[in-house]
Amino acid sequence: MPSACVIMAPKTLPPLAVGAKEAARLLGLSERTLAALVQRGEINSSQATKGGKRLFRVAALEAWLISNECSAAPTCPTSIGGLA
Q1: Does residue 56 lie in a domain region?
Q2: Helix, strand or coil for residue 54?
Q3: Could you tell me if 61 and 26 are in contact, meaning their C-beta atoms sit under 8 angstroms apart?
Q4: pLDDT reading at 43 higher than 80
Q5: Which one of 10, 12, 32, 54 is CB 3.0 to 4.6 Å from 45, fit for a cystine?
Q6: Which structural domain range is residue 22 located in?
């Protein structure tokens, strides 16, 4: 009889997208600075909720962080907030 291989999934998966407040926290910015970056087109967001709330893809936030912070930092993070 063949043995079964069981893969246990984590109980909670990290979010794929976060709101503006959490995005700003993950990047170490104020919400006002985050809004300015969005207005200048430096960070993309989408208005995915019915109420017009902006959502930010965590992968896009990580990419922005790496491309904008690593040039000056001695070490380069691979993820933010342990989400990736």
Answers
A1: yes
A2: strand
A3: yes
A4: yes
A5: 54
A6: 17-69
pLDDT tens figures, 5-30: 777 766 787 888 999 999 999 999 99
Q: Could you give the CA distance from residue 40 to residue 18 in angstroms, rounded to a whole number?
A: 20
Q: Centre a 10 Å sphere on the Cβ of residue 68 and count the other Cβ atoms it contains.
A: 14
Take residue 76 and report the two structure tokens written for it.
Answer: 């380069």
55 pLDDT higher than 60? yes
Q: How much is the CA Rg of the chain, to the nearest whole Å?
A: 17
pTM of the shown model: 0.66
- Work out how many domains the chain is built from and give that number: 1
Tokens representing residue 39 in the block = 């207005």
Beta strands, E only, 1-84: 17-19, 46-47, 54-57
Nearest Cα to Cα of residue 36 among 48, 24, 46: 24
